[in-house]
Amino acid sequence: MERRTSGVTACTAVVVGIGPGDPGMVTVQALEALASVDVVVGFDKGERAAELLAFRREVLDRASAGTPPRLVTLDDPQRDVDGAYAHAVRDWHLARAEVLERFLVEEVRPGARVGMPVWGDPALYDSTLRLLDELNARGRIRVDVEVVPGVSSLQLLAARHGIVLHRVGGSLLVTTGRRLREGLPPGIEDVAVFLDRSCSFTELGDKGWHIFWGAYLGMPGEVLVSGPLGEVAEAIVQRREALRRERGWIFDLYLLRRR
Ligand SMILES: C[S@@+](CC[C@H](N)C(=O)[O-])C[C@H]1O[C@@H](n2cnc3c(N)ncnc32)[C@H](O)[C@@H]1O
């Protein structure tokens, strides 16, 4: 049905978690949601993401059973790597919002359902939902939002190591390598760390920490390492660097647990 709100066109963004890279972990609801859209849109994250793009393509092919929806890849604006982190991210999000807004206003018919596949789950370290909030705040287009959850890489990490992410009735801090380097709040004993290019666990010192690490989870070449941090940290650093060089990119995350 075509909708217009006081001259502002409207479409529906269907934000779909497609899991951590294993075709078997794409949910039935994710496939159904992607089969329901008129067009699929995503940002081009460059050469190093070719394997991730191939996986997205494979998921779309499966969803559509032969007639894939139109896939539009938007140029991802460059992020200022020299500027202060918070400002650089803010500017990058605004630039992305402009690119997406232009596409939705100029190239999508009012009332269309626009698929936005998201790696893992959209609620963890992904900016798609914030981007859509930004678009709605700007008011040039109204975007209704539907979210389909996906299996997160964090869930897969726990499954692969056969662990619960927290103690009985305990807490779990989910954070980034950057935040870990800034220091942990007092009393934290279980920490899940995403987006850590610098192996920040090496700065914790051996204070009874145990690490459960995983790279390329759910994908060919998956690697798992676990053990007391003091004993395995250096091996993880070296393994990570060797894998990154060999494959050209790496996705890894870990849980730190104080024993
Ligand atoms: C931009 S975040 C996206 C997280 C995603 N929304 C999720 O739910 O897994 C990317 C980070 O997630 C982690 N990650 C995502 N997929 C992964 C995988 N298959 N194996 C290991 N880590 C992964 C890595 O820490 C990577 O740097």
Number of helices: 7
The fourth-level CATH homologous superfamily of the largest domain is Tetrapyrrole methylase, N-terminal domain
CATH topology of the largest domain: Cobalt-precorrin-4 Transmethylase, domain 1
* Low-pLDDT residue intervals, each spanning 5 or more residues: 1-5
Order of helices and strands: EEHEHEHEHEHEHEEEHE
Q: How are the SSEs ordered, and which strands pair?
A:
Elements (H helix, E strand, L loop, with lengths): L3 E2 L2 E10 L10 H8 L3 E6 L5 H15 L5 E6 L9 H23 L5 E6 L9 H11 L2 E8 L4 H9 L11 E4 H6 L7 E5 L14 E7 L7 E6 H19 L4 E7 L1
Parallel strand pairs: 2-5, 2-6, 3-4, 3-5, 7-8
Antiparallel strand pairs: 1-2, 8-11, 9-10, 9-11
Helix pairs in contact: 1-2, 3-4
The chain binds S-adenosylmethionine.
S-adenosylmethionine (SAM) binds next to strand 9 and strand 11.
Would you give an account of this structure?
The chain is α/β, with parallel strands linked by helices and 259 residues long. The chain folds into 2 domains: 4-148, Cobalt-precorrin-4 Transmethylase, domain 1; 153-258, Methyltransferase, Cobalt-precorrin-4 Transmethylase, Domain 2 (2-Layer Sandwich). It is built from 7 helices and 11 strands. It has helices spanning 28-35, 50-64, 85-107, 128-138, 153-161, 177-182, 229-247; strands at residues 4-5, 8-17, 39-44, 70-75, 113-118, 141-148, 173-176, 190-194, 209-215, 223-228, 252-258. Strands 1, 2, 3, 4, 5 and 6 form a 6-stranded mixed beta sheet that branches. Helix 1 (28-35) packs across helix 2. The longest helix is centred in the middle third of the chain and has 23 residues, at 85-107. It starts with a strand and ends with a strand. The relative contact order is 0.16. The model is unreliable at 1-5 (pLDDT under 50). Residues 20-21, 119-121, 124-126, 152-153, 194-195, 214-219, 251-253 line the site of S-adenosylmethionine.
